[in-house]
Amino acid sequence: MKFSEAWLREWVDPDIGPEALGHRLTMSGLELDSMSPAAPEFSGVVVGDVTKVSPLPDADRLRACLVADGSGEAMQVVCGASNVYEGMRAPFARVGARLPGGMAIKKVKLRGTESFGMLCSASELGLAESAEGLWDLPADAPVGASLRDYLSLDDTVFEIDLTPNRADCLCMAGLAREVSALTAAVNRGLDVAPVEPRIDETFPVRVDSRAACPRYAGRVIRGVDASARTPIWMQEKLRRGGIRSLGPVVDVTNYVMLELGQPMHAFDLDRLAGGIVVRQAGAGEKLTLLDGQAITLDPDTLVIADGDGALAMAGIMGGEGSAVHGRTRDIFLESAHFSPESIAGQARRYGLHTESSHRFERGVDANLQVRAIDRATALLLEITGGEPGPVTDVVSEAALPVREEIVLREARIERILGVSPGPGEVERTLVALGCGCVEKAGRWHVTPPGYRFDLSIEADLIEEVGRVFGYDRIPDTTQQFRPVITRRDESDVSLPDIRKTLVDRGYQEVITYSFVDEDTERLLNPDHHPKALANPLSADLSVMRSTLWSGMLRAVRHNLNRQQGRLKFFETGLRFVNSPQGLRQIPSIAGAVTGPVLHEQWSTTPREADFYDVKSDVEALLALSGHESDAVFTPLRGAALHPGQAASIALEGIHAGKMGALHPTLQTQMALDQRVYLFELTLGILRRGRVPEFEPLSRFPTIRRDIAVVVDETVPGARVMELILGSKVSQLRDVILFDVYTGEGIPDGRKSLALSLILQDLSRTLNDREVENIVSGIVAGLSRELDASLRE
C-alpha cells in the first residue's frame, strides 16, 4: 500500500516527523517497506505560459515559443513537442535550472535561434514513466509559481507491507484511523453528505447469488462529460498512490477506493441491456476484459451481467464491451460488497491481480457501499457535471457478515501481555479503532466494526491493545521456568538422526511443495487418484502429492539443467493418499541419486551410481533401527520404476517402501538426461527401532564352511539366507553370500549361490563331525523348501 504523507496529514496530523511516523506504523504491525520523495530533485522549474508559437525556418518539428514565466519578460524557447499551443500552461525550466539526473539548463542556439530555457514533459521531471509531449497543466495554474510548490511535490511517499488480515488499512480512512489510535492525534475524518437525486431514473438490479453478493448499490448519472480533465490534485494523489490517471470517471472510482477503501466500477449506460444481474457464470461463457484479454469463464466465477451476457468479473475487473470512454455521456455507477470467500483465488485462476481483487478477497466493509456512491457522485458532478438518479441498494440481510460481541477481561490482558495499560487506555484504544465498547462488571463487551474481519475472539482484542500500547513499551520480565521432561522410548529413532545419516553419506536435504502438477503425479502413480485442491496457487500446483518423488524430480531436473551433474537429494514430509477412510497423511522419507558416485578426482576412475549404491544407503537407514538384517527386498514391477531395477522393501512382513531406477520412459517424458535412482520409505516403520540386547561372547574359535547350492534362478538370495538363519541351529552365527554364478555346468533356469556359514559354540570348540552334521541339515532343509542341491 502506497500513500502520500501530505494526503494522510489532511486527515490526521500527528506532531511527529515522517521517520517517527514510519517507525510507529512498523511497531504496530504495518511494516514500512520504503519512504521515498514524491518527486525527484529538480530546481528552477516554474509554471510557464506559452503566449506565442511560431514555426522555425528550415525545421519541420521545431518551433519558436514565447513563454511568460512571471518575471515580466517573455522568454524565447525552441520547442520540438508536437502538442505545444498558444495559451498552454506547462512546466518551464529557466536558464540555470537543474533537472533530475543533474542536467543543467543553459542558453543554447538551435538552427540559429537562441533558446532561453526548456519546456518540460512529466517524464523529463521524473513524474511519469513516459510522455507523448509537454505536460499540459491546468489553465488556472499560476504563472511563475514554483512547480514544486504548486503541486506540493516536497512530499514523502510511504509504502507499507500489510498482512492479509489488515485490509482496513488499504485506504486513507483506515490509515488515518490507525495513526490516530497510535498517536492520539485527532482524526478529522470525512463528511460525506447524501447526494440528492435530480432525476428519477434507476436501472434494474437483480442479485441471484445473494451469499456471494449480500449488497449491491448502483446509481444512474446522466449527462456526464467523460472527456473532462481530471483535476491535477487528484491526478497527483493517484500517482503517489501508485495508480495512473485514466480519465475523470475511472479516476474518481480509483480515488474513492484509495480514500475510503471501497472498489467501484462505472458502466457506460448506453451499452447495457435489460438490467444488472449478479450471478454465477454460465458454462463456457466468454468475456473480454478491460486489458483486452479474452477469457472463458468457469461456472463458479461470480459475474456482473446484463440481458446480453457477462459484463465484468465481480470484484476483479470490468469488461471491454461496457467500459466508459471519452464519448460516454450516461453511466451506471456500481458499489458492491462481495464476500471474501467468493473472490479469493478467482483472480489468480485467470492470471490476474487487481486493486479490487486485492481488497475484496481480504474483506471490504459491508456498510460502506452507499457512502462510497455518494462520495463518488459528488466528485463526478464537480468534475464532469451530470444529473444523478436515486441510489438502488439491494441488500440480503441474512447474508451480510455479522459482528459478534466479544468479552474482554483486564486480567487476561495482563496475563498475556505481561502488562496492563489501564482501563482508560484500553477503552480509548478500542474506541479509536472503531469498536463499540461497553463496560459491564469489570469487563468490556466489544463489538468489532464492519471493516475489521480479523477481530473475532478475546485474543484478537488483546493483540490490538498490545500493538497500540507499543510492543517496545512492554517491560522485560523474567518468568519462572519449570521444564517438563517428556518420556522418550529407548527404541525410538529420531528424525535428526535419520537426516544426519543421509547427510553423512553425501546427501543434501531439499524442501519441495506438497502441491504438485497433476500430470507428473499421474505418471509416477497412475493407479492413484490424487486429492485436487479447490483453490490451487497455479495450474502446476493443483493436486496433493502421493509420493515425495513428484517435487524431488523437479528439483533434480532444475539442477541438471544448470550443469550440476552429481546429485544426492533427500526429503522428509507427508504423502497424501486417498483411501476409503478418507485422506491419509503418511510421514515419509525419500531420496534421489544421479551422476557419479564420487566427485571427480585423479585417484579413481569415475563410476556412475547404480542400484546397489542406493540400496546401501537404504540399508544404512534401516541399520539405525536395528532392522537391516530383517529387511526383505523383493523384485517390483511398477509404472514409475525400471522393471529390472526396482525392489519393494518389507520389514517383518509390513510394506516399508520401495526403491529403484526411474523408468526410462518417464525419464524421457520428464526431460531428464541422466539415469536417476529413487527410494521412498515410511518414516513410522523406520523410526520403530529395536532395543539392543546383550549376548554372551564365546571364548572358542569360529569355524567357516563354504557351500555352493544350485537353486531356481527366480529364487532370491535373500530367501535362501532367510531359510538358513531360520533353521534354529544355535551354533550358526552368520551367513555370507559371496558369489552368484550362472553358465557352464549349471542347468538352464538355475543358478549357483556360494555361501559361507559361520559356526561357533559358547561352551566348546566344534569338531568336524558336528560341523558336517550342521551343514548337512541346512542343505537338507534347503532341498525340501527350495529344491536346492549342492553344486558338484
**Which sequence of strands runs across the widest sheet?**
26-29-30-34-33-32-31
DSSP E strands, number:
38
Oligomer type? single chain
**How many helix segments?**
21
Structural category is alpha+beta
Describe the sheet with the most strands.
7 strands, mixed
So what's the overall shape? elongated
Kindly report how far apart the N and C termini lie: 86 Å
**Mean pLDDT score:** 92
Q: Radius of gyration, Cα only, in angstroms?
A: 39 Å
Tell me roughly what share of residues is in helical segments: 10-25%
**Beta-strand level of the residues, as a percent range?**
25-35%
Structural descriptors:
7-stranded mixed β-sheet; 5-stranded antiparallel β-sheet
Question: Your description of this structure?
Answer:
The chain is α+β, with helices and mostly antiparallel strands and 792 residues long. It is 25% helix and 28% strand. It contains 21 helices and 38 strands. It has a 7-stranded mixed sheet, with helices on both faces. α4 (172-183) runs antiparallel to α12 and α5 packs across α6 (248-260). The mean pLDDT is 92.
